[in-house]
From TrEMBL:
Subcellular location, record wording: Membrane
TM ranges: 15-35, 42-62, 82-104, 116-138, 195-215, 242-264, 323-353, 373-400
Superkingdom as given in the UniProt entry: Bacteria
The protein's name: SulP family inorganic anion transporter
UniProt keyword Lipoprotein, yes or no: no
Residues covered by the SLC26A/SulP transporter domain: 11-378
Entry keywords, A to Z: Membrane, Transmembrane, Transmembrane helix
Membrane topology category: Multi-pass membrane protein
Amino acid sequence: MNTRPAPALVLRTDLAASLVVFLVALPLCVGVAVASGVPAELGLITGIVGGLVAGMLPGSSLQVSGPAAGLTVLVYTAVTEYGLAALGVVVLLAGLIQLALGALRMGRWFRAISLAVVEGMLAGIGLLLIAGQLYILADRKGPGAGVPNIAGLPGLAAEVARSATALTALAVGAGTIVVMAGWKRLPARCQLLPGALAAVGGATALTIVLGLPVARVRVSGLASAVQPPGSSEFAKLADTGLLATVLAFALIASAESLFSAAAVDRLHTGPRTDYDKELIAQGMGNTVCGLLGALPMTAVIVRSAANVQAGARTKASRVLHGVWLLLFAALLPGALTYVPTAALAGVLVHAGFKLLPVKGLLTLWNSHRGEAVVLAATALAILFTNMFEGVLIGLLLAVVKAAWETSHVHIEVTDDGEGLVSAHVIGNATFLRLPRILETLEKLPKDRAVHLHLAGLRHLDHACLSALQNWADEHNRASSEEVRLVHPA
């Protein structure tokens, strides 16, 4: 018997899901743009492209793409250093790199990245996001970088305490956070309205009714916000710093999208993600975003989870969510001018806290201490350096940790009582374990013949073999008894 749902039913569920995703995406698209230091319309453009371009392409059927909080800090830094006009070039080239990676079938290799590094990256982004948005929460402009932002928080607190307008903005933003944090505790029928939209809508209504003196979103119009990159922007690629930014955009956006796809696959029983095709879809979306001078695009777990939970069956829901964003941006852009920026900052502070593995870190420390160290070190490296260097440091630590854990070595020493000592080295002998190996060997008696058996080794690197040979030579010079290395037959 055919148990597949009727096409009309699928269309109705996808239509309903698209409206839910639209309501979730709207405040996030605007909030990410404002936090990135670019016009609010650019966030909407990226959301539209995520729906209409990436949404149409194969890869992950239910994953939703758009501007992501995870790239906010990177975008803000790029815009600050190279100007808004250069953003299109960066996003365009990042998209082309993603297309190339997908065409070369490199998507699956992103799954080989250490989970601790990914969680550390998200935690570092969360810390940077919170530190930066606390200033916007009080209608103040922060220093712009991670460490200066954190160092300036005591001064911000003192300034807010002396300013009635800053306290008002802080109350609006804090109220937004409280509503979002408590929204899931309300009855299920209330949660049909997304918490972010309810919080921002409530803050906007309160601001209008009471006439509160807080900063609001500035809107210039969708058409005027589109700024395709020109030849002068491409000339900036001679700057190696800009090229590093392009690479960072491409790698981080790809990793975030593909890890999001893996998470979304666990939420439904439909078709699994084709990672290479999804990488091509993301690359195509970012290429279009770059040509329009918009924000970079990634798959976003919050919108994707809302899509699945709302009952979406096909990619039609994510495409339609892009249609609703387009209609809103074209017909009702002026509505954004009533939204207080403190409320949007509250949405992003809440998003930043959700990126911090507060509960998971303690559990990880108790079960896999090395993974916890890599996670924390990656987050701190991002905080004190930048996104690209922080992730590289995290990857390096993960490789060192893996090498250390796989290079277990054990030495069994036996004495036959007749003047011969046998030492059997078992496991993986690498340079990381040399201090332990040599410490054990140096304790062997110098008045006995020693046979050092290496047949039990699964791996013996050049550094370790040279050190063992040097130890044997020194032992033979200092003793009348011979040391012999017994290699596998």
